[in-house]
Amino acid sequence: MSAFLEARYADRDGDPAGPAFRPAWRERLRELYDGTDRRATRFQWAVASIDLVIVGFFILSPVLQEWRGFLWVDYAVAFLLAADLSARAAAATNIGRWFRRPVVWVDLVVLTTLLAPLWLVNLGFLRILRLWSLSQKDLFWRALRRRGHQEWEDVGRAGINLLTCLFVITGFVYTVFAGPGSGTEGWVDALYFTVATITTTGFGDITLPGTAGKLTSIVTMIVGISLFVRLAQALFRPYKVSFRCPRCALLRHEPDAVHCKACGHLLTIPDAGGG
């Protein structure tokens, strides 16, 4: 009988404690975080707006660290992020599956650096990874799809990946190599070096000392070229829609495809208007 009840009330995400067994407040949270109605969309945009302000704070952190109120803002951001993580955990239908998501681990690392800013000051550059986790939300891309601009989703994702990498490497270079007489004396110098290295321009006016500096430059060039190629592919390759073939699971097809080019199965790809 218990097995029957679990199967009866299990929801679509495989949580044996389905909606009938979860508190109403958890169901409301889930509707707000995962729903697509007007109220949920407004809530998600409000959360995303706060996230964007937080990302801006992370980008400017190296410049603001000497500000007297920096720690207060730091702990306020930590509180907001902890509240968001707790709410998302409560809204999750399967806490184990939710906890294994890379986005959750990224947010936990960011939260740890915020809670111990003096002890983990050298890891502060990892906070910008929050920009990547923010890009994993479907909210932004859903808005593009509704307006008929699906082709820009891959471009946007590739651009954000490149931008995140740029700021992570800049923060690492600034934390590890910046100092008086090093040639990299400020955050702008670190950003300049990172852009010149990622684009393989290589002016040579700023170089990183020692073996560690050479290895950092090598990794920066390899990762940067890879992300630039990915962005170029997203910009210039023929546009295809994402629609999984029911038979062979091929994901990308031409917008006007009638049959799957891999297995010939009849497709029913929705048009831009959702029809």
UniProtKB/TrEMBL annotation:
Q: Where in the cell is it found?
A: Membrane
| Entries under Pfam families matching the protein | Ion_trans_2
Signal peptide extent: none
A single Gene Ontology MF term assigned here is: voltage-gated potassium channel activity
What keywords does the record list, in alphabetical order? Ion channel, Ion transport, Membrane, Potassium, Potassium channel, Potassium transport, Transmembrane, Transmembrane helix, Transport
Query: Which is a Gene Ontology cellular component entry for this protein?
Result: membrane
Name-wise, this protein is: Ion transporter
